[in-house]
Amino acid sequence: MSMPRCGVADIINDYVGQADLILGFYRGEHGDGSAFDGPGGALAHAFPPTTGRLHFDADEIWSDSSYRVRSNQVDLVGIAMHEIGHLLGLDHSRDELAIMFPGIAKGQFKRSLSFDDRDGLFTLYADNNILQLGGRVNYYNLFLC
């Protein structure tokens, strides 16, 4: 392992199998039938369990700060939490405080699970360790308000 400038050791992964999750930053049309629209609008989209894809719009101004997001930035960690919720099988929430609420404003910093978020996860996973899916599988976009 080497030590990069940020002081965190690099982790080398030599796993050659197929990944369960694929995360990436993309611009415009990128092969999944759901093109990104540039700055503003759709920030990211995820495809629920069984596909494991999470795509972020590379044209956004992303922040990975642990304590604040500037007014022209989008919180990468908060958006990732929302999209990972979809990967786990959660749908959008009507609760504006929820991570799973379908919109967020630039500069908004939302990283705490609401009661609704926790209740949704409990409903999906409390009685079994495997998420059961039925019906059709949808993907979801998260939009900038």
TrEMBL record:
A GO cellular component term found in this entry reads: extracellular matrix
UniProt keywords (A-Z) are: Hydrolase, Metal-binding, Protease, Zinc
Answer yes or no on keyword Membrane: no
Give an example GO biological process.
Answer: collagen catabolic process
Q: Which GO terms describe its molecular function?
A: metalloendopeptidase activity; zinc ion binding
* UniProt domain Peptidase metallopeptidase: residue ranges: 4-127
Ranges that cross the membrane: none
Record has Repressor as a keyword: no
Q: Name one Pfam family in it.
A: Peptidase_M10
Annotated protein name in UniProt: Peptidase metallopeptidase domain-containing protein
Record-linked Gene3D superfamilies: Collagenase (Catalytic Domain)
